[in-house]
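Quick one: C-alpha cells for this chain, please?
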Amino acid sequence: MPRVKAFVTGGTGFIGQHLVRKLRERGDDVVALARDPAKASNLSAQGVHIVEGTLSDEDAIRQGVAGCQAVFHVGATYKVGVPKSEHDAMWDANVRGTERVLDAATEAGATRIIHVSTGNVYGNTHGKVVEEGYERPQPPDFLSFYDRTKYEAHKVALDRIAKGAPVIIVQPGGVYGPGDHSELGNMIDQAHTGKLKMRLFPETGFNFIYVEDVADGILLAHDKGRIGESYNIAGEKATMGDLVDKVSELSGRKPPSVTMPGGLMKLAIPVGPVVGKLMGFPPNLGELIKTSDGVTFWMTDQKARDELGFSPRPLDTGLRQTLGVN
C-alpha cells in the first residue's frame, strides 16, 4: 500500500496502541487524538503527532482529520457494569463521538474510514455462530448500556455508508492480551494468579482474539476491504470455562472446581458496589450478570479470511504470549 497520513482515535488505548505502532512501522504518518498529551508520550516517541482533545471536541477532531487519507475510529468507552451516573458520558463518547469522527472525516475528504465496532452488536446469539449482516431480534434487548451505545454507533456507521461515506466496519470479538484492564483481562489475571476461587458463568461464549491480531485485522480492512462492507475480526470460538481452564493449565494451577450459581450472584445485586469491590468487579452486578448469564457472542470471521487474508493465532498461542510462558 502507498504511504498514507492517518488519523487515529483511541491511539493510547489497548487496541489503538498496537494499531499506531503498526502504522508507523510501515511508514505511515500518524496523527492521534489524546485527552492528555503527557500520557501519549510513547506515541510521540514514535513520531506521532498528538492532537489534544476528546471525542466530544469537534474542533480537535477536525484538526486531526485535516489532510488525512485514512481515518481509524478506534476510540470508545468500554465498560460493563457501570452505574447510571456514567451513562451520559458513555453515550456522548460512543454514539455522538462516532458521529463527530465519521462526519469530520468525510467532510475532510478521507478516502477510507475504518469504524471499529464490535461483535457485541449482534447481541446474544444463543449458541448460534452468526455472520456479517445478522440482525439481532427487534426491539433489541440490550445486555448493557455499553451494548446499547455500540449498537447505536454501529447504526451511525451504516447510516453514513448509505449516504455515501467511504466507511468500512470491523467487528472484533473478545479481545485479550498483555495490558488488558477490561473484565476479560481481569478474569485472565485472576485465573493466572490463583485468585479465582469459583467459576463465574463458564458457559458465556466469545470468539477470543489476541490484540495484535485485531490491529492486523483493522489494517487489512483498510488495505483490502470493500467500502461499505463489515468484517468480523473474530478469532477462536470458546467459552469462559475453556478460557479459565487454559489459563490455569498454562499457569501451572488447578482450575476452580466449583461454579458460583447464577441465582446466588443475583442475590448480591443490591450490594453490588461492596461485593464488586471485594471481587474485583464493577459495581453494577446486575448488568454484569445480564451480559454473561446464558450469553454467547459467537460469530464467524470467514469473510475476513477469504477477502482480507485475515489469519488470527490460536487461543493457546495468544494466551502463552499474554502470560509470558512457553
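Residues 44 and 50 are 7 Å apart (CA to CA).
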